[in-house]
């Protein structure tokens, strides 16, 4: 098998499975970089959106991945990833021998290791490559990718990685390490959003000037990336989903399951997860994750900007 | 009463009560700015240290505050602040009429309001002025001060504030507001340290390269000011106290008490406080607050840099 980097003259054939806000941006970035990209999504309207952009669409993952050198999977979780690979109409039916499967869904590292072994047994490469950065960075090709896999997996995937990412962390040759780094990031991100919402609503409860709180905290030792990024949604009273409550129900759930199986206590994660569950149970699951502030407001009779006594939903 | 800013020709007389790592730096900064500073501490060795620097020492708060225009109190909590003001040998016995008491201890806003009323009833001004920034910034006169109080309190205190602070937030004319802002900061700071320690030790449990984890997280959405500042202590295995576990036992305790009395749920604070209590109970109360990582290691059989199986203490 020759890796793509050894054959610079040929156009790289790629598929993107999952054309949500992240996958669509990643597909567009790859197309802009000169790759021959076909997209698939379980929702036909998402495929149509990519076609309207000048992209090529397919009716199944297998059709999208036909003769592909690189298949980038940007689905929600490990179950969907497994279906994309091995389900009826899955990509392993049609990928070019020696092609690489780039797996971006956040998942338990043990599951990533298992998928990697099964993919490699079929003569393909597997790159464990979760991403961070959000839809805007996906669109501009400036994502952060936390990747691990064999040198051949990296080499084969490199045209797609360079098209999608501003920063690529190469974290070793074993699948699972990329996933583990992503879970550490999600642990912190999920707890920090909950702490930010607990704090800003507590400030509101005390009648403090919330714009001033934002100014002081972002210049102080209490700051976090998430406080700085999410609290403006609360100050604007705008809970339109950029990243949803359900994402953290899922990701902190994975962290809690991993930690339980490793006999590792995670009291902060456990407390935060209960709040995401409560927000979801109260009807805010598909709203922005900063909706935890609305939950705290509801639980304490506190007024927040843009909200009446009863939270919107 | 004429405020000091109206009498620029006269040397400002000031006292600093509490010459720990913060108070000593603040006293030195005020002295460097040309104020006539007398220091007091309950520990005579702390006073001697200030005298060895060329400062003037006193045997009681009242002696230190004799004819002072500005008294800066940098003690541990509200009980000590009350004793400094109204106990035997307290500063209100000797402060110049119209002088200002600058209160820097972290405390419940309701207590700050009460102390302010009692001080003002005696003909003095009160500035609610918690600080943030640590010993190095105290020494260089670059603290952040979150202050509230009457315009006269601000005017009278200004020579000391300018000497101590790089940034002064003026948060309104009511005592208690400065204290409330500080508690919001401490809520976040305390939760973020616990989350950072939960995450880095979980990464160690999974055998990840911790230096790489630090590099990736500080460039990702999971970052916090505290993760960036405290995790290097864990990576170096150095738990010498810069700020102690007991500080957050105290400060998250205040947050929890405030929240309980306001019927406001703080599940993240509650979970974090239990970990600080456990660290204190396990003998790490006077060690650096990053010792929570050692606690997580102990509770999960995880190796951390510089630690044998049994945690040092």
Description:
The structure is a homodimer of 313-residue chains. Chain A is of the alpha/beta class. Chain A has helices spanning 21-32, 44-52, 61-64, 78-86, 109-121, 134-140, 151-164, 177-205, 210-218, 225-236, 245-261, 267-284, 292-300, and strands at residues 13-17, 36-40, 56-57, 70-73, 100-103, 125-128, 131-132, 143-147, 165-170. Chain A has two domains: 4-174, NAD(P)-binding Rossmann-like Domain (Rossmann fold); 180-300, N-(1-d-carboxylethyl)-l-norvaline Dehydrogenase, domain 2 (Orthogonal Bundle), CATH 1.10.1040.10. Chain A has a six-stranded parallel β-sheet with strand order 3-2-1-4-5-6, with helices on both faces. A three-stranded mixed β-sheet of chain A has the order 7-8-9. In chain A, α1 (21-32) packs across α7 and α11 (245-261) packs antiparallel against α12 (267-284). The longest helix of chain A has 29 residues, at 177-205. The first copy, chain A, is elongated, with a radius of gyration of 21 Å.
């Amino acid at each position: 098998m020759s890796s793509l980097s050894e054959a610079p003259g040929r156009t790289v054939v790629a598929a993107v499975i999952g054309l949500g806000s992240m996958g669509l941006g990643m597909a567009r970035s790859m197309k802009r970089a000169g790759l021959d990209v076909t997209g698939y999504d379980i929702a036909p309207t998402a495929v149509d959106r990519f076609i309207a952009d000048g992209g090529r669409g397919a009716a199944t993952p297998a059709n999208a991945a036909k003769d592909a050198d690189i298949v980038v999977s940007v689905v929600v979780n490990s179950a969907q990833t497994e279906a994309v690979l091995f389900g009826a109409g899955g990509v392993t039916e049609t990928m070019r021998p020696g092609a690489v499967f780039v797996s971006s869904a956040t998942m338990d590292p043990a599951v990533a290791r298992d998928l990697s072994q099964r993919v490699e047994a079929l003569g393909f490469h597997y790159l464990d490559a979760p991403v961070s950065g959000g839809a805007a960075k996906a669109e501009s090709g400036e994502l952060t990718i936390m990747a691990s896999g064999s040198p051949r997996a990296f080499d084969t995937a490199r045209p797609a990685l360079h098209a999608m990412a501003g920063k690529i962390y190469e974290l070793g040759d074993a699948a699972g390490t990329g996933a583990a780094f992503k879970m550490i990031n999600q642990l912190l991100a999920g707890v920090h959003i909950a702490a930010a919402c607990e704090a800003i609503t507590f400030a509101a409860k005390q009648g403090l000037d919330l714009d001033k709180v934002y100014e002081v905290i972002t210049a102080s030792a209490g700051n976090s990336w998430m406080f700085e990024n999410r609290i403006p949604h609360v100050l604007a009273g705008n809970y339109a989903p950029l990243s949803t409550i359900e994402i953290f129900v899922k990701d902190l759930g994975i962290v809690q399951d991993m930690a339980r199986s490793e006999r590792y206590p995670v009291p902060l994660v456990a407390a935060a997860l209960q709040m995401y569950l409560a927000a979801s149970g109260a009807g805010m699951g598909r709203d922005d994750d900063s909706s935890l502030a609305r939950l705290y407001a509801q639980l304490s009779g506190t007024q927040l900007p843009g909200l009446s006594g009863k939270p919107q939903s």
